[in-house]
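User: Design a sequence. Structure:
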């Protein structure tokens, strides 16, 4: 099994208990802190556990380096864990004022602050619209451009205030239940971490890595990710490579959402290699 986004090892712990002594579990993650937490959590598993610091876009290379020719199961949970959202070094949340960074992989050079302060207004609006799917992207970019003329925008709190000023804070007159800065923050995180490019590389590599009758399962959290997975599975099925097992994505039950509100947007798609 390859857990391409091992995080703190929650999924791998459940699957690893069933692999047995003959099984091997490979876990990838770009976050060093997450890998260390996963190492501690998975220490007692009966299977062999190999953890590698790597982006899942390099799954084929990393697994090949381990001498593993085929995987029976590839899992990728594309969501962020709560610890990452509250990590002040990562700067992913506007609920606490943090440095505007957003690099989950510390080897990346460009931060969210670089984009906010250096992109021209039109390019910034295009980015917010493309990755955040916010129809007010032009207005948001205009407010950002005006604010940075007076001082650089360097913290999550500053950026959230600017976007809220552009759109207005949530209230009785606003139908949306999410903070007005949510889509802008999503757009920046996707851009900084090259999330969609990396997902495309993972999807491209999966068929060549899977054994016959092997499974690939992807959990996504917004329509851009889910759309990529849906199209990839459909195209591979048309070519006779996959059999898609989820005609519609599996979504959390009301009970799951009540227990974990962050799961509300999760969509799971599964395919099996022919």
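Assistant: Done.
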């Amino acid at each position: 099994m390859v857990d391409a986004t091992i995080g703190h090892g929650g999924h791998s712990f459940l699957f690893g208990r069933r692999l047995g002594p003959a099984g091997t579990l490979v876990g990838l993650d770009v976050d060093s802190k997450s890998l260390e937490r996963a190492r501690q959590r998975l220490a007692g598993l009966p299977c062999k556990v190999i953890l590698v610091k790597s982006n899942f876009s390099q799954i084929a290379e990393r697994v090949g380096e381990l001498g593993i020719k085929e995987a029976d199961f590839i899992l990728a949970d594309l969501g962020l864990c709560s610890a990452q959202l509250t990590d002040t070094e990562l700067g992913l949340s506007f609920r606490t004022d943090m440095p505007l960074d957003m690099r989950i992989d510390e080897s990346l050079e460009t931060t969210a602050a670089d984009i906010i302060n250096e992109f021209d207004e039109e390019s910034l609006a295009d980015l917010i619209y493309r990755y955040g799917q916010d129809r007010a992207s032009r207005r948001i970019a205009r407010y950002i451009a005006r604010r940075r003329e007076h001082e650089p925008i360097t913290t999550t709190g500053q950026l959230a205030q600017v976007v809220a000023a552009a759109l207005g804070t949530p209230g009785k007159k606003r139908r949306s239940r999410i903070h007005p800065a949510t889509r802008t923050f999503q757009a920046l995180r996707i851009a900084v971490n090259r999330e969609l490019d990396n997902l495309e590389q993972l999807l491209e590599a999966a068929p060549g890595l899977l054994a016959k009758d092997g499974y690939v399962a992807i959990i996504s959290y917004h329509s851009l990710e889910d759309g990529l997975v849906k199209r990839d599975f459909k195209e591979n099925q048309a070519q006779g490579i996959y059999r898609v097992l989820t005609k519609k994505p599996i979504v959390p039950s009301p009970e799951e959402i009540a227990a974990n509100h962050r799961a509300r947007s999760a969509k799971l798609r599964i395919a099996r290699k022919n």
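The chain is about 45% helix and 15% strand. The chain has two domains: 2-83+195-273, 109-193.
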